[in-house]
UniProtKB/TrEMBL annotation:
Domain of life, per lineage: Bacteria
Residues in the signal sequence: none
Regions that span the bilayer: none
The protein, known as: UPF0145 protein ACFQHW_12270
Organism of derivation: Lapidilactobacillus achengensis
Matching NCBIfam families: PRK01119.1
Protein family: Belongs to the UPF0145 family.
Length: 107
């Protein structure tokens, strides 16, 4: 499945638009990662735990969106956009969403 932020796929022609597809993932951050992130806030540095959680959520959201496009008979997703949000009363949840247009391409 081709996924691109552009409105076209170079060298291919869009032959049909199947509709808008979404991928959404909401994940909690565990307390051990919170402790590590708090220490890094004080001493500086990157939070590997949060970065890994974010990368995993991003991959899951993209995979979910691609599967929904496949289910619609699409070959690609164009105009993909991704967004991040922190949720929950204690900001303990991370939401990653992506959307794009599922399309069929010429062979």
């Amino acid at each position: 499945m081709i996924v691109t932020t552009t409105t076209s796929v170079e060298g291919r022609t869009i032959t049909a638009y199947r509709g808008i597809v979404f991928g959404e993932v909401i994940t909690g951050i565990n307390f051990m990662r919170d402790i590590g992130a708090s220490l890094r806030n004080v001493f500086g540095g990157r939070s590997q735990g949060y970065e890994e959680e974010l990368a995993e959520a991003r991959t899951e959201a993209l995979d979910e969106m691609a599967q929904r496009a496949r289910d619609m008979g699409a070959d690609a997703i164009v105009g993909m956009k991704m967004d991040y949000e922190v949720l929950g009363s204690d900001n303990g949840m991370l939401m990653v969403t992506c959307s794009g247009t599922a399309v069929e391409l010429n062979q």
